[in-house]
Amino acid sequence: MTNAADIEQYHLALREYGEGKLVEAIMRLEALTQRVPVYGDALEALGVLYERAGRLDDAIAAMKRLMEADPASVMAHTNLSRFYMLKGMIDEAEEEKSRAAIASFDRIAGRKSKAQMTPEELAAERLKEEERVTSERAYRARKIMDHRAMIGKFPEDAMLRYTLGELLLQQGERDAGMEALSQAIQLNPKHSVAYRALGRALEEADRLDEAREIYEKGIPVADQNGDIVPMNAMKNRLSRLPKKG
């Protein structure tokens, strides 16, 4: 079980990454996940930072550790799919993508289709799904509070603002989420994933001209950083937007 000191170490690692101290952030997360091997957020972050450092095998190993710590983790499969894709392991990537979908949409029923369920089983499934959604919202609400507290301590931390923005968007607080992402970009104009997330949120809000402007700013930033995944994602989304005017 994590305590306040462990949570602060996790946020300090995110802060170090936001300051460009990738090696230090990885070392801090490595120490933290050795001490608390079931800390899911730290394992997920460690895998992502390994990938940023070009250590794909270590990133894959971190996601496998996350699956052991939390067998129901959707992000473990999602990230593992992405890491396999980056290694050119297409079959493995597709398999993990499918597993992510199963973990996300059918965790309770497993392989049993809804058509095979009795009315009682369907009712129980709906109840469990409602409980899961409520639990996830409560979990995100706690993380939002944690991030806001950390931002109070480190107001110039772009990574904290970015993570807060993503959490708020997941929670359905679109305006607050976009504001946090905009602040992340203001604090660190080279934060390519914040451009991608903000552009996507603007699209969903039907603010297409603003989304186009964000992608047009974010693509060269990602290119300069060597951030291939967010760059390609922004290019693809930009290409699908209707032409201005």
Write a brief caption for the model.
The protein is 78% helix and 0% strand. The chain has 245 residues and is mainly α.
Q: Any key phrases for this structure?
A:
mainly alpha, 245 residues, Serine Threonine Protein Phosphatase 5, Tetratricopeptide repeat, single chain, 0% strand, 12 helices, 78% helix, 2 domains
Report on this structure.
This protein is mostly helical. The chain has 2 domains: 4-107, Alpha Horseshoe (Serine Threonine Protein Phosphatase 5, Tetratricopeptide repeat), CATH 1.25.40.10; 133-240, Serine Threonine Protein Phosphatase 5, Tetratricopeptide repeat (Alpha Horseshoe). The chain has 12 helices and no strands. Helix 4 (56-69) runs antiparallel to helix 5, helix 8 (158-170) runs antiparallel to helix 9 and helix 9 packs antiparallel against helix 10.
Number of helices: 12
Q: Let me know the number of strands.
A: 0
| Sequence stretches where pLDDT stays below 50 over 5 or more residues | none
| Overall shape | globular
The CATH architecture term of the largest domain is: Alpha Horseshoe
* CATH fold name of the largest domain: Serine Threonine Protein Phosphatase 5, Tetratricopeptide repeat
User: Strand count, sense and closure of the main sheet?
Assistant: none
* Average pLDDT number: 85
| CATH C-level category of the largest domain | Mainly Alpha
> Level of helix content?
over 70%
Strand content: under 5%
* Rg from Cα: 19 Å
Overall structural domain count = 2
Tell me the name of the CATH homologous superfamily of the largest domain: Tetratricopeptide repeat domain
Q: Could you give the distance between the termini?
A: 54 Å
Order of SSEs:
HHHHHHHHHHHH
Structural class: mainly alpha
